[in-house]
Structure to design on (80 residues):
């Protein structure tokens, strides 16, 4: 079964609601950019350079199907 990390699910759900999101460069090591690269590597989203300072991301059909078929489960915070 596919595992979707919470930050990946959040980004993909936002893309489902909005269709497309513009994000500014530089492509640093922020949580956003790490998550974008993780999702892109898995084929869940498409990254397009709009201009030297802005990129656009949108969910792929595969990403949408993955979200629909993978139930959300709360992380175990009990420490056991």
């Amino acid at each position: 079964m596919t595992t979707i990390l919470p930050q990946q699910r959040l980004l993909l759900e936002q893309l489902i609601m909005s269709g497309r999101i513009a994000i500014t460069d530089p492509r640093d090591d922020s949580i956003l950019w790490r998550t974008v690269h993780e999702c892109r590597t898995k084929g869940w989203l498409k990254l397009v350079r709009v201009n030297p300072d802005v990129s656009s991301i949108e969910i792929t059909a595969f990403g949408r199907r993955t979200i629909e078929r993978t139930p959300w489960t709360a992380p175990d915070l009990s420490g056991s």
The longest helix spans residues 6-18. Residues 4 and 72 are 8 Å apart (CA to CA). The mean pLDDT is 90.
